[in-house]
Predict the 3D structure of the following.
Amino acid sequence: MSSNSDRVDIAHRTLRQAIIEQAIKAGTKLPEDEIGRHFSMSRTLVRAVLAKLQAQGLVDTYHKRTATVAQPSLEEARDAFAVRRALEREVMKAVAKRWSPAIEKSLREHVREEEAAHAKGDVRLSTRLAGEFHLKLADLAGNALLERYLSELVSRCSLILAMY
């Protein structure tokens, strides 16, 4: 039997991907009891999953009511992308300082995967890989805090791109 943290991680990854790929649309309610049944977990664990998604800007909760998939406004979207551009400039500076043949190989392989998904017409996979490319760069930058902030923004921006 998997541990509670494993179940929380699985539920988080599954819901995050479903939101980013628009399998669950913006504004959709996310009832704790339904999520709990689906992932065989308690409401306490479901709340932990929803809190992680909320921290990433993918879920909104108002006054302890049912969580919903976030619906960022156009103004919020502009702000998010402005901050993302600034952080990605810093990521690129850091990656450039650490550049190596291994980094180049890793990035080229990722781009080939993304291109193959696009060529097959797999829009969901191609979109997910495009977002993951930015996360891969952030990881290669070697700055955990920068990686964390960019990860949150990439999630939020993926939702925004799906909406607009």
Notes: The chain has a mean pLDDT of 92.
